[in-house]
Amino acid sequence: MCRDFLTDSPLYDITKFTTLDFPQNLASIFWFCRCNMRCPYCYNTPIVFGEGVISIQSALDFLATRQNRLTGVVLSGGECTLYPHLKKLCQEIKKLGFKIKIDTNGTNTTLIKELIQENLIDYIALDYKAPKQRFEEITKNKNFNDFMDTLIYLIRADFTFEVRTTVHSSLLNEDDINLIIDDLSSLGYKGVYHLQNYLHVEDTVGKTEQQKKEIDISKLKEKIPLNFREF
Ligand code: SF4
Predict the structure, then answer these.
(1) Distance 17 CA to ligand 1 centre (A)
(2) How many other CB atoms are there within 10 angstroms of residue 224's CB atom?
(3) Cα angle, residue 124 at apex, residues 3 and 218 outer, rounded to 5°
(4) Strand 11-18 vs strand 27-32: parallel, antiparallel, or unpaired?
(5) Domain ranges of the chain
(6) Vertex 28: Cα angle to 70 and 74 (nearest 5)
């Protein structure tokens, strides 16, 4: 195995154990530094702006000690698909016998397709940040079309994935969410759409303030199954 790959340190942290983040799996979470978005509500500022401190070798060594205790690994961040050797890392994790979930904003369509076509990942949580006309304003990223390509690919491939949106009522209102619901419905998304209520923390990327009110979930269309987290 390439020595540079093993000594690479793209990880900010490892959560050793979670029962919540990977459906049907006891998992660890690898937190990748760097992101190509700047969502105002993001509370992972040390991860988005920080440097990696944990090497691939250390992460794989850790997983080797968990082979009979955990079943999955979540690759999160930051945006894990920015890591140039993610495919190689997935291959090594698979050799150790773990299932892999990735948390992604969906902008690296090419890599996500490769990971799926080579059976290197088992589940995706895909962030649908905002409807097209609000996407750049919310994320500071212009690549809505790449995100959309990923979404359409996942639906057509019938891959197991979930779509989710973080909701801060000063950033997205009921009409914005309904545009996303319309879109998911018309594209034939079969899963549950998860709406994650913003929970205030200090020091978010955009220094967001406490929500003055929550969105009115009774105004949301019921075209697809909705799940509300922290509302
Ligand atoms: S919330 Fe936005 S800025 Fe934060 S890691 Fe996710 S995509 Fe990046």
Answers:
(1) 22
(2) 17
(3) 150
(4) antiparallel
(5) 3-229
(6) 115
Residue 144 has pLDDT above 80, yes or no: yes
Strands (E), the chain: 11-18, 27-32, 72-77, 99-104, 123-127, 161-167, 193-197, 226-229
* Contact call for residues 9 and 53 (beta carbons, < 8 A): yes
Distance CA 26, CA 68 (A): 11
Per-residue model confidence (pLDDT) at position 133:
97
Bridge partners, 226 (sequence order):
193
C-alpha to C-alpha distance for 90 and 115, rounded to whole angstroms: 8
pLDDT at 3 over 70: no
Name the residue at shortest CA distance from atom 7 of ligand 1: 37
Pocket residue to mutate for ligand 1, from 37, 74, 203, most atoms within 8 A of Cβ: 37
The Cα–Cα gap between 104 and 118 comes to 18
**Quick check: 2 pLDDT over 80?**
no
Nearest-angstrom CA–CA distance, 11 and 51: 8
124 Cα: distance to centroid of ligand 1 (angstroms): 15
Q: Which helix (H) or strand (E) holds 31?
A: strand 27-32
Residues 54 and 9: beta-carbon distance below 8 Å: yes
CATH class of the 3-229 domain in this structure: alpha beta
